[in-house]
Amino acid sequence: METSELLKKVRRIEIKTRGLSRNIFAGQYHSAFKGRGMAFSEVREYQYGDDIRDIDWNVTARYVRPYIKVFEEERELTVMLLIDVSGSREFGSVNVMKKEIITEIAATLAFSAIQNNDKIGVVFFSDKIEKFIPPQKGKKHILYIIRELIDFQPEDTKTDISQVLKYLTNAIKKRCTAFVISDFINKGSFKDALTIANRKHDVVAIQVYDRREAELPNVGLMKIKDAETGLEQWIDSSSARVREAYQEWWQQRQSEMSDSFKKCRVDSVSIRTEDDYVKALIALFDKRN
């Protein structure tokens, strides 16, 4: 992409998403995520009403009476954006591609983090870790992230969400809030990796998908191509049975994904490319309060 065109796109996204984060999300973001990052402060004797889950069993055993760990809210959080850059993001049947919506959502979250004095970092992933941007503060850092969101070219086209979750668990030592922004078109299960990652960090899943991924149009014989594997095949979309089978597959896939999020205790939201992602994010933030 030409430098001048890239800078114009960066500026447009900055104006839109910075305004959203300042005028709409400021309060919701703060209440939804502040206080989720807790740092160990001290131990003291157990008092009636304390949460037994905070008991420090080592100290308790040493003094033969119950002691609990005391935590205090960290003044700043680290926010990580795990961005899917696989081939399937380059799709959109309405007026916008999934990649563009992912970029706007990520930029909005980044500005929200900065306005709350939090650090923001990014991991671009396909079926491997494509790029890691360490957490920092400041507008200059945000604009660099937006440029990468717009212009980054991955080496691979496939998706492996387990890989990025394992990377998050191992690479980020301090507890953080991590947004996984993806269409979650993933071969194989990522449930185990998600469970482990969410024990250490606060993981939030944001699915971005297109309506044509959920249902086939009745347009007759059509060639479809898997953007991640390159596999092509012809299907007869005029067949009601074909369309019904496809929709059943999609609904089962969504059900399995939602079930994984619930079992792993991960908050999630699904956003269609043509829908208002602002409302969806507000609903997600409200759910966490």
TrEMBL record:
Pfam families assigned: DUF58
InterPro entries cross-referenced by the UniProt entry: DUF58, vWFA_dom_sf
Domain DUF58 residues, every copy: 42-252
Protein name: DUF58 domain-containing protein
Protein's organism: Parabacteroides chinchillae
Taxon lineage: Bacteria, Pseudomonadati, Bacteroidota, Bacteroidia, Bacteroidales
